[in-house]
Amino acid sequence: YRAEGSESGVPSSSSFSKINKTLVDKNVKQFTDSELKPNVNYFYYLTALDSAGNISPQSNIADGLLKIVETALAPTNLKGAYDKNKNLVQISYQASTQAEVLGFTIYRRTESEDFTPVSGLLKENTFADKNIKKGETYYYEVRAYHQSGSVVKSEAIKLAVKE
Question: Distance between CA 12 and CA 35 in Å, rounded?
Fold first, then answer.
């Protein structure tokens, strides 16, 4: 088979050109076009070529759009410090500056519990956890919430609240 592609989508137009350097075997069910630009509509059709050099009529036109979807970046550089005088854990992290990030939520767990949220959706990159017990060891992570619906987690940190 011979694959032809275009950005215009008009099959009789001279804008269609051969996109495979060698013929595609008749048993192959897919073809990859690796010369695409983001956010451009592409149109394709196939023709068959027999051993005598006869070319079949064009197949139906298929189209596609290469869309680049940005995923949320996980918060980095998560740090925690126990403030004995104020009896709180101060959490800080490096937040993603992507415009598509809706915000961040701090999660905490103990040795015997699963991660649960301890903050609402934050825009800032610091949080004071005041609901702590002396003598307990906590694990914290930050989750970034993206407009696309994706959620990414930071690496967890371990922090002991000493008496």
Answer: 22
Helices (H) and strands (E) in the chain, counts: 0, 12
Alpha-carbon distance of 109 to 145, in angstroms, equals 19
CA 55 to chain centre: 42
From residue 26, give the alpha-carbon distance in Å to each of 50, 54, 55, 59: 10, 15, 14, 14
- Give the pair of three-digit tokens for residue 5: 């592609």
DSSP string, 66-78: ----PPPPPPEEE
pLDDT band at residue 14 under the 50/70/90 scheme: low
- 139-156: pLDDT as tens digits: 999 999 888 778 889 999
* Predicted TM-score of the model (pTM): 0.58
Say if residues 124 and 86 touch (Cβ distance below 8 Å). Answer: no
